[in-house]
Amino acid sequence: MSTYRRIVLASRPSAEPSPDNFRLETVDTPELQEGEILVRNEYLSLDPYMRGRMSEEKSYAAPQPLDQTMIGGTAGEVIASKNAKFAVGDKVVGALGWAETGVSDGVALRKVDIARVPLSAYLGVAGMPGMTAWYGLNQIMQPKAGETVAVSAASGAVGSVVGQLAKLKGCRVVGIAGGKEKCAYVVDELGFDACVDYKAGNLVADLAAATPNGIDAVFENVGGAGFDAALARMNAFGRIAVCGLIAGYNGEAVAVHNFSSVLTNRLTIRGFIVSEHLEFWAEGLRELAALVAGGQLKYRETIAQDLASAPDAFIGLLKGKNFGKQLVKLT
Amino acid sequence: MSTYRRIVLASRPSAEPSPDNFRLETVDTPELQEGEILVRNEYLSLDPYMRGRMSEEKSYAAPQPLDQTMIGGTAGEVIASKNAKFAVGDKVVGALGWAETGVSDGVALRKVDIARVPLSAYLGVAGMPGMTAWYGLNQIMQPKAGETVAVSAASGAVGSVVGQLAKLKGCRVVGIAGGKEKCAYVVDELGFDACVDYKAGNLVADLAAATPNGIDAVFENVGGAGFDAALARMNAFGRIAVCGLIAGYNGEAVAVHNFSSVLTNRLTIRGFIVSEHLEFWAEGLRELAALVAGGQLKYRETIAQDLASAPDAFIGLLKGKNFGKQLVKLT
């Protein structure tokens, strides 16, 4: 019988996750049942939401169970199929977790065309992170041409797409990112109008300088000081999509100090989880893939090699060590 | 030439307003021009928003100018008219400020019927505060029967209407108010299901006990600890109307600590100013007046006597010393 390697959640972190919260193990490949598909995962997606699942606190999703394969998006190839909809050799995207091999019943598995969009992009710009950007921008922020849009974690898998889509709509787009290199990428490669380096120590003044006409819409991935700085710059009737608050994911107290802006500027703030809005995915993914294929949507990937590197890569992601979409290459 | 008394803003407060921020003075009654109406104000409305206008900080409205009549809603009687739409003896509601007499061009003056609704009620439950409640509840919170609604400053002019309207919709309604007497009124007179006394010192636990099924919609008048306690009790897809953040009106730092609830519960938060939604006023005011006339909407007033008492009454309002709608009786 064949085996494969997987990573399970071994324990829950009390603050920052550490490598010993994870355990690499080898398990038997199960026998395929009627209707099932066996997939060899080529790429594993690492995303900030996984940090939330590692904790037991009440949140929008059930916690990741201990001793089970860590959840996660995957892209790979069908290597055996007892499902008429999938054939050996098909490239597929699913959520088979931190594992070299996965079994799917086909319901949450999606065949993808890699002729013009690389397989890995379906885990990033043309996948869940891209859809997250698309939904937040189009359904919550709804910016008009000429408005100013601010995006935190601007060089990341989600933020980079938010900003580029906003540029395509004719907005002034200002990113917030950590470090000169990321900010240079955001402006020079992605085409944002400006990028504020929060590590430079002048966040409030730098954001004010970069947003001379204030801010009309925010895509918030981080929370903390950057969010407060954005709140202080909001124009009347501004919209804020709250996608992530990574600054507080390890349980630190991250207070919001400029909340009064909600009243004085009559802001609308909405938190969202893109997986709850599946009715938009077909439209959004089609649009994103077309933009990638046409070269209008750029992206960058940080690719760790081998399943065993996933915990360190994930911990690095939470600290902003990645540059663009964080993936693990499994094959 | 006749004269009248008025109160002007003499100086801006640095923290809590004090009586010396105001100045009582006697001025000449102007000669009426064509199209103008002279009104003897019978009631002056005191409202928390006035605190914001006393400051120079950027807000949704221009600051109250120094040495000018303090802004404010008024109800009174036409005593002279050069405007065909208004006759001597008409009862009218307007915004003629902290003054015994006012001149209007008629544009922002509204004739009211006092046959079934007392004149003073048009400054409260059947006026701007009532409309504030109506708009926040119907346009932002949109509660369904069976949902739990929380209201801060629950015994106040706005909060008391929010809760009663929500009860009419079949919601479970929980108020937050300061002191046993106000809480008893909220439950016994207004018909709320429960009221948490924030002065009792167990705000978080008491609110949790009063909302066994969590909170689906919040009307926020205060901010601070009560708002954080409500955020911690929110259910998925909860809606929060932010009408006031009186806890921070004097410039205290009032941080929001439980903002992560916006993400984990996919909340929508919207700040609003009812005067920006005039398209709803005719419908709302008609509904409110009918409910008052029918005895379905109860209210309480705290009435200070004489214009000279307005500053102290206003300062008391900001400290929660009033009980229900704060008015000044001028005649």
TrEMBL record, chains A, B:
InterPro entries: ADH-like_C, ADH_N_2, ER, GroES-like_sf, MDR_fam, NAD(P)-bd_dom_sf
Keywords: Oxidoreductase
Keyword Signal found: no
UniProt-listed Pfam families: ADH_N_2 (PF16884), ADH_zinc_N (PF00107)
Superkingdom as given in the UniProt entry: Bacteria
CDD domains: PGDH (cd05288)
Record bears the keyword Transmembrane: no
One MF annotation (Gene Ontology) recorded for this entry: oxidoreductase activity, acting on the CH-CH group of donors, NAD or NADP as acceptor
SMART domains xrefs: PKS_ER
Domain Enoyl reductase (ER) as annotated: residue spans: 17-328
Protein name: NADP-dependent oxidoreductase
The species this protein was found in: Massilia eurypsychrophila
